[in-house]
Automatic annotation (TrEMBL):
Name of the gene encoding the protein in the UniProt record: hisC
Source taxon at top rank: Bacteria
Record protein name field: Histidinol-phosphate aminotransferase
Modification sites for N6-(pyridoxal phosphate)lysine: K219
Sorted UniProt keywords: Amino-acid biosynthesis, Aminotransferase, Histidine biosynthesis, Pyridoxal phosphate, Transferase
Domain Aminotransferase class I/classII large: 28-354
The protein's required cofactors: pyridoxal 5'-phosphate
UniProt-listed InterPro entries: Aminotransferase_I/II_large (IPR004839), HisP_aminotrans (IPR005861), HistidinolP_aminotransfase (IPR050106), PyrdxlP-dep_Trfase (IPR015424), PyrdxlP-dep_Trfase_major (IPR015421), PyrdxlP-dep_Trfase_small (IPR015422)
Stated family: Belongs to the class-II pyridoxal-phosphate-dependent aminotransferase family. Histidinol-phosphate aminotransferase subfamily.
BP terms from Gene Ontology: L-histidine biosynthetic process
Signal peptide range in chain numbering: none
Subunit structure of this chain's protein: Homodimer.
Length: 362
């Protein structure tokens, strides 16, 4: 008999992402992972190099300086912050600690893929709740919760739809869930939201004992490659996360990069201003080509090509020109592609290519 993992683990396909090559094409424009278009903040690049000098030392297992810097930046108590190897790690820790065999995890039908993948290998039964016009349905989410439900996870804004659930609806969701259900608000794209009523989760976390917010340095901060995320929650939940995380789960260069990034005063404003201008222009340009673009509150657009064949053909057409975007058939959206808002030049290249006017990118 060969050694075997728990059966639920073999039900999960390995995650495929981060692809950055097209055979035969020299210049690649990667618009498939919702990364910031400006590279890392310059102060972070310097800090990573500097941290390399001490790479023979283990990092601070408590990430104290980083948690303090995050706390200062967001006005939060650092004792109620935990950092991780990307927010993916923190989401996995929450699912493992609060979910597992015999429990249910409730999510919106087009919620972020990792909730389902991690939930499945953790042994949770996954309940996907149908959406209304690609927006999470609060009544459906509440109604889907049964006695075994331990977690409800909501990305707001959501990836890949770009949808924003209005704050009153998020509040209604929390109010409609039993006390023993953990609500995880995944606010990976929080910085891009322009709705003044939006709470990335801080207010809801502080209002009770059963809500956690996760955030990332991978999007607006331009540090996807460094793998850095954080969670803010009630003390008891942060305590649980500290018990289950690895002792040195954030590397010294990642901590240094995060602290340095937070010291760049205009970085977020500049990135957000670019994003809102080019998200609008890209939307307009794509609509002018007759495509349906879903309203997005993130740094990407979900573009509907009308049929699975048309979306596959567009994907291949873009790829042949070095433009890598994300097919979202795995999300049950085979007629769509998800396109990250890149630099002005990159957005122009996408529009030119889709208009059939693009020359091969070499
Ligand atoms: N949540 C959402 C909604 C995301 O889109 C992503 C990145 N694709 C993540 C979490 C994970 O981000 P990271 O692990 O890089 O922090």
């Amino acid at each position: 008999m060969p050694v075997m993992p728990r059966p639920s683990i073999l039900s999960v396909e390995p995650y495929v992402g981060g692809e950055s090559k097209v055979p035969g094409v020299n210049r690649i424009v990667k618009l498939s992972s919702n990364e910031g278009p400006f590279g890392p903040p310059p102060a972070a690049i310097a800090a990573i190099a500097e941290a390399g000098r001490e790479a023979h030392r283990y990092p601070d297992g408590g990430a104290t300086a980083l948690r303090e810097a995050i706390g200062r930046h967001h006005g939060l108590d650092p004792a109620r912050i935990v950092t991780g190897n990307g927010s993916d790690e923190l989401l996995a820790l929450l699912i493992l600690a609060y979910g597992g065999e015999g429990t249910e995890l409730v999510m919106s039908a087009h919620g972020f893929l990792m909730y389902e993948l991690t939930g499945r290998w953790a042994g949770c039964h996954i309940i996907k709740v149908p959406e209304k016009n690609l927006v999470a349905d609060v009544d459906g989410l509440i109604a889907a919760c049964g006695p075994r439900t331990r977690l409800v996870i909501l990305a707001n804004p959501n990836n890949p739809t770009g949808a924003l659930l209005p704050q009153a609806e998020v509040n209604r969701l929390r109010a409609g869930l039993r006390e023993d259900i953990l609500l995880v608000l995944d606010s990976a794209y929080a910085e891009y939201v322009e709705d003044p009523g939006y709470d990335p989760g801080q207010a809801l976390v502080d209002a009770g004992s059963n809500t956690v917010m996760t955030r990332t340095f991978s999007k607006v901060w331009g540090l996807g490659g460094i793998r850095l995320g954080w969670a803010y929650g009630p003390a008891a939940i942060i305590d649980v996360m500290n018990r289950v995380r690895g002792p040195f789960n954030v590397s010294a260069p990642a901590m240094a990069a995060g602290i340095a990034a937070l010291s760049e005063p205009d970085w977020v404003a500049k990135s957000v201003a670019h994003n809102s201008a080019w998200r609008a222009r890209l939307t307009e340009g794509l609509e002018a080509l007759g495509l349906k673009v879903h309203p997005s509150h993130g740094n990407f657009l979900l573009v509907d090509f009308g049929s699975a064949e048309a979306s596959k053909a567009a994907d291949a057409h873009l790829r042949a020109r070095g433009l890598i975007v994300r097919g979202v058939a795995v999300y049950g959206l085979p007629t769509c592609l998800r396109i990250t808002v890149g630099t002005a030049e990159e957005c122009g290249m996408v529009l030119d290519a889709l208009a059939g006017a693009g020359s091969p990118v070499q």
